[in-house]
Every structure is written in C-alpha cells, then in structure tokens.
C-alpha cells in the first residue's frame, strides 16, 4: 500500500518557488498518494491536518515550518503521524543533522525510500518545544543582526551576524543548571542547548549532538572580553569553539538558565529577553523519515511502510 502523504508548503520559506515545489510533488507522486496544501498562516495548519486525517505530513520548508508542524502534531496528540522533510528554508539545520539532502528532489526520494526514526524534543517552561536547538545570548543577538542581511546573503547571513554580534556583545550575568547541578554562575556570552548539531544554516554549535540519544548537548561560553568574543565567533563557525578554555560542554536532560534578561533563538525564531528559561528533554516524542542511520543510503522502496 502506498504511503498517504500530505505535502505542506510554506511560500514564505527561503528556498520555496513554484518550479521546485512542482518537482518535489511530482517526485513524491511517483511512489506515494500525495495531497498538497499551502500554509498561509498559523491558523491554517490545524484545519489542514483536520481535513486530511491519516496522512503523514511532508514539510516543504525550513526549520521554522517544521517546528510548527511538529508542535501542532504534539498538541493534537498525534505523534504517530510520521513527518517527512523537504528542506526548502534558509537554515535547514535539522535536515543537516539527519543527513537529509538539501537538494529538494533528492530529499523527496528520502521521503519515499527512507526509514522512520524517532526523535527527541525539548519542552520549555511555557509549554513550547524545540526540535533542533535553542541558544541564549550572543547567538540570539547574531540572529537579530542577520535578519536584514538575509535577502542579500541568504545562508551566509548568520555567519556575518555572528561576527558582528561577537564584537558587540558584552555578556549577561547568568546561572546555568544542568540536571539540577549548578554548572555556570557569572558573566556568560552564550548558552546553547542542542538537540541537533548546527544552527544558522550550518554553524556547528554542538557537532556531536544526536536528536535521538535521549540527552541534549549544552554549550556554555565564558568568552566575554573583546578578543575572546571575536575568537569564539570565529571558532564557532569552524566547529572548533570547544577547544577554548572558556567554553564548557556537557550533556543533560534538564537545563535551566536564569539571571539577567537575555534574548533567545529557538529553532531559528527570535524570542524576547527573559530572566528565566528552562527546557526538559522528552525522548522519542515524534517521528521523521530519514536516510538509513548506518549507511546514509535509502533502502529499496519496497521496504517502505505504508501510511495510516
């Protein structure tokens, strides 16, 4: 039985265009029963999911669209609806972690031929979720700096924003607890919590993070002097920031950050400054279609499980 799919497109996604969308839908249609829908706003999502029960959603968009779809499924208590992903946004960071091709047609083939993989999610103190990563401090400031640069620089916008923010930020007085243990207390440049490995379109915040291992990767930067901030920004982009003496990395299931109001970026979405935030990891909370974990290849299409 062919898998029944609901292709959800977000026209606002950075890589979305009519021609690419047609190619993706045509490819999906070669091996599945596909219905297409366009999400113009948040209010559309529940209606679309209601109209097509039993179909597995396939997100044609970026991390933000994927976040909204997964959040809707969890709020509706429908974790059994497996999610496919065609990375057509600006960052596409969870796709990078999962090994999903950034080429939309190749990603569509993964949806047809890939395997189901349970993934963890972070739940915050307000009931929101994080599927890829959240970071407070200079990373969020970098995202603010990147916003006006995106039209011209696209995926390079975050790298430039990170360099600018690394020079300008002075740090925040914060306390960080991981699994109840105080691990940092002082002026910090950044605290990152990674379910996935990268942020901002490939910046490797937590290179060893796996979104299915039952723990989150925590990165804490004490680099608050001018030269230290610049050095951290450069090494972060290279994935070598963990080599610095003023960077602490650890793993945990419960993370609390409190102190001075500090801005945050969760799955690419900016959040206003707040004095308290917490996240608790919920293992195997949702499912995604991804390449085979061992080989990186898609198994023969005959092995694909039919949709519900």
UniProtKB/TrEMBL annotation:
Cofactor requirement: Mg(2+)
SUPFAM superfamilies for the chain: NAD kinase/diacylglycerol kinase-like (SSF111331)
Residue span, DAGKc domain: 1-128
UniProt KW Membrane keyword: no
PROSITE patterns: DAGK
MF GO annotations: ATP binding; kinase activity
Coiled coil (UniProt feature): none
Gene Ontology BP annotations: phospholipid biosynthetic process
Domain of life: Bacteria
Alphabetical UniProt keywords: ATP-binding, Kinase, Lipid biosynthesis, Lipid metabolism, Nucleotide-binding, Phospholipid biosynthesis, Phospholipid metabolism, Transferase
Similarity-based family: Belongs to the diacylglycerol/lipid kinase family.
Name of this protein: Lipid kinase, YegS/Rv2252/BmrU family
Taxonomic path: Bacteria, Bacillati, Actinomycetota, Actinomycetes, Streptosporangiales
